[in-house]
Specification:
Blueprint (H helix, E strand, L loop, with lengths): L4 H7 L3 H9 L27 H8 L12 H12 L3 H7 L1 E4 L5 H6 L4 E4 L13 H15 L11 E4 L17 H7 L2 H17 L4 E2 L23 H16 L11 E5 L13 E2 L3 H8 L1 H8 L4 E4 L3 E2 L14 H11 L5 E3 L17 H6 L4 E2 L4 H13 L5 H17 L22 H11 L1 E4 L13 E4 L6 H5 L22 H9 L4 E4 L12 E6 L23 H11 L6 E5 L8 H5 L3 E4 L9 H6 L15 E2 L13 E3 L27
Helix pairs in contact: 3-13, 4-16, 5-15, 8-17, 9-10, 10-12
The structure holds alpha-D-glucopyranose (GLC).
Amino acid sequence: MALSLRASALLSLPLITLLAACAGTPPTVASAPAEAPAEVRADAPGERWTPREAEIIAAFPERKATHSLDPAMEARIAQIVAGMTLEQKVGQMTQAEIRSITPDQVRQYYIGSILNGGGAWPGMKKHASLADWTNLADAYARAALATDMAVKVPLIWGTDAVHGHNNVVGATMFPHNIGLGAANDADLVERIGRTTAKQVRATGISWAFAPAVSVVEDQRWGRAYEGYSSDPAVVAKLGGALVRGLQGQLTGDGDVAASVKHFIGDGGTWQGVDQGENRSSPAKLAAVHAAGYYAALDAGSATVMISYNSWAPGGTEPLGKLHGNRALITGVLKQKLNFDGLVVSDWNAIEQVTGCERDHCPQAINAGIDLFMVPDNWKTFIERTVADVREGRVAMARIDDAVTRILRVKFRTGLFDKPVSAGRYTGDATALVDRPLAQEAVRKSAVLLKNDAAALPLAPGKRLLVVGQSANSFPDQAGGWSITWQGDETDNRDYPVGETLLDGLRRVYGAENVTFSADGSAFARDKFDAVVLVLGETPHAEMKGDVRWPTPLAHALQYPQQAALLGKVSGRGVPVVSVLYSGRTVYASDLINRSDAFVAAFLPGTEAGALADLLAARGDLDFKGRLPFAWPKTACPTTGEPAGEALFAPGFGLTYRAPRAIGKLVETAIPAACP
Ligand code: GLC
């Protein structure tokens, strides 16, 4: 973006000075730090918890704060808040979506944050250039600094960079969390976080809505692949690593604010229903579903996003939607876990709180949420919330606490010191790509489930028939949250950087030795030494990926077609190596039985071609991936992790070095509907 000479000269000044200059008043250095204000508690003085709320809060171990507030920063924040009108404060608490707000409206309504939802790009151009991203970020950033506020407050833009900067055509996308859980390598995840932060900063954005620290209990959940594991300790380890990677020292360059999500219990809903009911006891919620938050807050996560799910301990105590639960948000997260950053709601989630609408929810404000993701209805949200304060439904102390937290995150993220346009990585196209790192992650995340006849490794020079459209499909290997929200409405033209498994096999074995026949019709016994069959599932995100009871878990895979494809090549005298792309573990015993080798590759991202090196054991490569979730032995596992019905337990994974036959698996019928 071209800056005018004056502006560029000004930009060299610390922003706070710039702001004063813009306001025409002489820059004032923050006065000697006044006594830092006592943290404004969300619960007004004198409020008490009910006995049940106190019991719930008591179930969560206290987390000692890992840092103290910066008195000078707190004094500056208090000074700014004191000078803000109610409309300006509520504007700060509002997060609008780029498709529904212009830069000038950001200025006019004192908007504190914007986001781009999955599938929203600058100008709604799927192939928006890096300059389109940075120009839009700069336009919004400047608009926020052009308000008539006494002290201008910079905007913060959040984006779902959940496996790399998956919104941007040309950016490297890493394996989804299910694959990283299989790799179970904290150093790798931290390095992915570092790269993701630079990718996000390259577009002028400074906040990533990641990591999800969902402890996934049921593979029917459409977001199972956003979870690292069913083991809370693994989730905590990797979630903390991603926060450290994303935030670094949170100095503003190459670092972004993280948003650990979704608090709390998103991965434990009954039958895996997305946004459904978590029936854990308080003790289980604390021991299992809170694990990732302790680690992420210890790693300094600047923000926390609240979950859509409801909570009904034992299924008999309906405590309602999380977005209205003050005991958990304020009592547990803010007080017991000593979280001093900002709490953000999920997309229109406040409308699910009893008595609320998508643009009005005093209950959620009083529960302790600070920033409201009201993508479209931001104007009436501001109007109705201002009225809530004026009419006493929300205390000004709660508003001031929320704004204080928002400003604290903006200071910590470097936004007051440096406008986005001056960031070291802003507009740097090289920051969007890190193929070696993604290839390493792909190779570490694949799990070998079967290799009874040592069909693998496939020696160089083998003549291969590659079957299955997923072998040559970036959308299938990337999964949901890739270019678009659902990972749909895209094709290979939207992935200029990366490698499909077909590309990788051609690279490793030579194009002359690799024949691609998506439907398997080219099969001929004497022409090929092995078949590589790539099975996949339709990319999906959130509720669209749910396998709702009584649908069999196998049907996540477009099962009939996949089984038919395998039937064309299996048992015909040529070894079949099956590679499965899936966002979950899934019943596949008959597919495994009809394969000589079977690899669970989960959702490898843009560098699926790296699997070819593993299939060839190039450079003595071996499988390192171990199942992050149990692998079901029936198509109708009862709800919850099918551990008791597991074909393979979490942690299972074969290697070349320690071959082990799994033999013929017991196949169960796949009913049209589970009984
Ligand atoms: C979605 C998701 C959340 C995401 C947010 C913004 O509904 O639940 O993970 O960060 O909206 O896209």
